Each structure stands twice: as structure tokens, then as C-alpha cells.
Predict the structure.
Amino acid sequence: MLTEERYSIILNYLAEKKVATIAELTALLDSSDSTVRRDLHALNRMGKLCKVHGGATAVENNYLSREDDVLTKKDMYIYEKKLVAKYAASLIEPEDFVYLDAGTTTLQMIDYMTENRATYVTNGIQHAARLTAKGFNTYILGGRLKATTEAVIGTEAIRHLSFTNFNKGFFGSNGISIKAGFATVDFSEANVKREAFSRCRQRYVLADSSKFKRIFPVSFAKLEDATIITDMLTDPKYRELTTVIEVNS
């Protein structure tokens, strides 16, 4: 079966069912698991569907209320995350006071960081460990630990942030949409992100292309509040609302 035929079948199936699993599409197309995953990845990049863990949803049915844990997410879109992370790391300059949000893409940034004259503050447990191991001047927020994201959240984390003034902040987001802006799964994590956003002069949201057109329960910032760094922008309308930097190589 030709690639375009498979694309058409997948999109027609999603138009009817709204949601499809890898197993369902493998049986429907009589194709291998790897072929279906490759097709979903391509269609996601074209903005034709929303790729999710284990399958896909129709673009108009992209409201999500749960997230995968760190171990699952760290191996998803790894090439794209590294492209975005490497570019973001290059923006850090001597004497910068940097906030590094918890997340798998911001975690990748640390591998490319070389500026040891900057000061770093993070709410990510893994982030703090890696930054310290590289000899960087590092502070971690106090508060409650969220196991699924390995992020420090809660009122104590917000209180610590209230004393800070960062010149640059790098953030992750579960979803990015024109309707809901930057959004995440729960109120506690969103509140920490919102406070950190308000304390940064320059804000960057790091997101591979799969994050676009996804709506999660709690918005923490508007699109115009930050510059988006991504591997591919599938909808040019986002450029009308904020600055978008595409990093392809």
C-alpha cells in the first residue's frame, strides 16, 4: 500500500472514531507497528492529527487530561528535543540569572550548557543534580515533590520564587494552542510555572512539534507571554500571536 493511501485511511478512521490506537491502525492497514508509528509521526508534523502515547487523536479532539511520567516521556521525540535544547542552551550568557523549569526538554538543555558564570535556579530534581554535577552555581526550590514529573511544586516553591528576578527563563509545556495558550495538567504545577513566568524578563517555551494544538486542563500563560522554540511549526497562525524560533538542524 502506498504511503498516501495509508495516510488517507488513517485520517478517515480518525474522522469517524476521533481516537485510534497503534494496534487498531496496524490491523486496519495490515502494516507493521513501526510503519504506523512513522505515519502518525509524519501526519502529526503536518498538523493532520495529534499523536499521543500509544496512538493518535483527531485534531478537533485534542483535549487531554493526563500526562505520561518522566521515564516514558524522556524517550519520546528525542531527536527533536535535542535540537530545541541545544539552541536554547546557546542563549545563556555570562552573568545570566536563569530559571530552568522541570521537563524532559529543559533537562536536555543541560547537556549543551557551557556557561559556568551564570546562576541557575530550578524546580526539577534531575535538573539540579545534573547542573551540580557540571559544577554550575545551582539552587533548587523547596516544596512538595510531584513524582510523575519529578518537579518541586506547591506554596513553598511559589514563596521561594516570589523573592527572585530572573533575566531568562526556560519552560516546558504539556500543550500549546491558540485557544488555551500554554497549558499543563494540574493546578499546583501550573501555579509554579505562572509565578516563575512572572519573575522572568525573557521567557522561552521549549516544545517539539507534537505539543501544538493540544489543550490541557490548566493554562499558565498566554502565547504572547513567551518566545516558542520548536523543531517545526505546523500552523503559521502561531506566528501572528508570538515569536516562534524553528530549529531544524
The two ends are 31 Å apart (CA to CA). The first strand starts at residue 19 and ends at 21.
